[in-house]
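Here is my example:
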Amino acid sequence: MFSRERWNEILETLNSNKFRTFLTAFGVFWGISILVLLLALTNGLEKGVTAGFQNMTSNSCFLYVRGTSIPYKGLPKGRRFPLKLGDIDALKREIPELKYVTPQNRLGGYMGSNNVTRNENTGAFQVEGHFPEYINQKPMDILEGRFISYSDIDDKRKVCVIGREVVKTLYENDEGVIGSYIKINGVNFMVIGQFKLKTSQGNREEEGNTIVIPFSAFGQAFNTGDNVDWMNITAVDEVNIADLRSRIFGVLKSRHIVHPDDDGAFGYHDLSEMFQKISGLFSILTFIGYFVGALILMSGIIGISNIMLIVVKERTKEIGIRRALGATPFVIRSQILQESLILTILSGMVGISFSTGVIWVLNYLVDLYGPIDNFVNPSVNMTVIFIALSILIISGILAGLIPANSATKLKPVDALRIE
């Protein structure tokens, strides 16, 4: 029930010693601010890191040859062998749970020597040979033109799709890109599209400096034939790619005469396992955020409890008079608890508002100066706010509980005698 006199009394009590009230409230303000900011920063870091996995479907793996580690059927240890296009067809045929199996070959690198020219402009770029399904494994936006198609594969067309950094290096402003030609290691390729990845995470410079050409044209132009450097393998949504690992290895071992126990012959990067490990790591970081923030907040709550004990001691005679006039222990206890709750909740709400402002400034700076690697949109959802409010309410009750019980234990006669 609302009591104006009670609220006036609470405000008068808090204003009686403003500096003490400020110092007491600052502990809760700082604790709740740190809690919200830690969770927001952890969330931003988690979004930034996991967004990198959106560049490649998480239920995928990369596979390549490392060399045999066990002699087998007269063949020596340390033998290296190339993967072949036939391996792609064999995996698709024998493991129907695989959604995409695409080969990849790579030439040069954007940090290497100049390998691409256009008129008088030159640059060092990463040139990759792919199949059309690759766009489903590593989602990208086609800014103009199109991606490679199976007609390009079948006809071994010397066409290419280029990243934005390639355009900036080889072309003048407002110069047409589609239909123009670039020369890769002395071989002319016609540009049919320009792309960018759907996320801005990972190595943005390398991704922007990539040129994609049909796998068949890559083999013909650079004499790699049907050899495959990498396989990009994606399982259907209902099956975890990790569950297919032994079957994938089994097919390749039988085709390349590798010992059945020689898993080390193949390099294997499972994105689903990496994603699960990273998700587990951020679950731990979130827990640490709650734990550290709660500890800091607890120090503020202890401060409020101590101050309320001092307030009760200062008002001992007042409490004695109220008890003598008929105030019940419940009335005395509720007044102390209410004062503690008001002080805690007000300072906590200011802390939440302050941390929200800091988060807004961080997002504004990120938008103003561009994205930061592995850090995106630091924020907290309403669940965190509700949890913070719940912590505030519980903390306010706990902070006032001991002083309130202490106040109700005073006998009116003893309270009136205290000077």
Q: What stands out?
A: Residues 271-314 form the longest helix (44 residues). The chain is about 55% helix and 15% strand. The mean pLDDT is 80.
